[in-house]
Amino acid sequence: MFESFRQIIWDFDGVILDSNPWRTLGFRETLKDYPEESVQQLIDFHESNGGLSRYAKFNYFFKDILKNELDNDKLNVLLEKFRLIMLKNLIDENLIINDSIQAIKLLKDKDLFIISGSDQSELNYICERLNLSKYFKKILGSPLTKKENIKNLIQEGLIDPSLSCLIGDSHNDFEAATEFGIQFYGYNNEKLKGLGNYIESFKDLLNSDGLG
């Protein structure tokens, strides 16, 4: 399968790092002073929109759930609280998804990228601390959206959509890939099986490619 691609784009949360439960906890802790019912609505939105950034989710919480304005000062306070919770809990080698990392190591002859909804500076710091940065040509995240980051890579000549694939665990990943004609592969989320290509295990795929 992978032999036909020159570039492979990876989502991060839920694909490389088993971090989604901590992301959920981060929203609960950051918003613990707000009504529980409203926070649960945000959690439901968060879990249904895995690829969206925390910027978009905090804005959704205030504007769509609380029906309040969110100024930059308040947003920055929330972002900092969330960031500190993530840094405290995600720099943990036990959270690395071994199936994915073994594939990444075997695909070192490809141009590999991370494009995530997570904060870019935080993402790069976590990858550096977990010794993952060396495998990737670029590690990109929010505040730019996944679509914006993919568009920039195409414009820079780093990605050829016809020779690329994107591996993700959310419908947002699927939408980002298909908008640019990039082959999408779902992973680690059985709800994505109905979208077509789905990876049950990288080990089996790599063995079939003669890389395992």
Key features?
alpha/beta, 6 strands, phosphoglycolate phosphatase activity, phosphoglycolate phosphatase, EC 3.1.3.18, single chain, 47% helix, HAD_sf, Rossmann fold, 212 residues, 6-stranded parallel sheet, 14% strand, 2 domains
Account of the protein in words:
With 212 residues, the chain is an alpha/beta fold. It has 2 domains: 2-18 and 94-208, HAD superfamily/HAD-like (Rossmann fold); 20-90. Helix content is 47%, strand content 14%. The protein is built from 9 helices and 6 strands. The chain has helices at 20-30, 36-48, 54-65, 72-90, 98-106, 120-129, 146-155, 171-179, 202-208; strands at residues 7-10, 111-119, 138-142, 164-168, 183-187, 198-199. The protein has a 6-stranded parallel sheet with strand order 3-2-1-4-5-6. Helix 8 (171-179) links the parallel strand 4 and strand 5 (183-187). The longest helix has 19 residues, at 72-90. The protein is globular. The two termini are 13 Å apart. 33% of the residues are buried. The mean pLDDT is 93.
Low-confidence stretches: none
Largest sheet: 6 strands, parallel
Average pLDDT, all residues: 93
- Helicity level: 40-55%
Summarize it.
GO terms for molecular function: phosphoglycolate phosphatase activity. Belongs to the HAD-like hydrolase superfamily. CbbY/CbbZ/Gph/YieH family. This protein is of the alpha/beta class and 212 residues long.
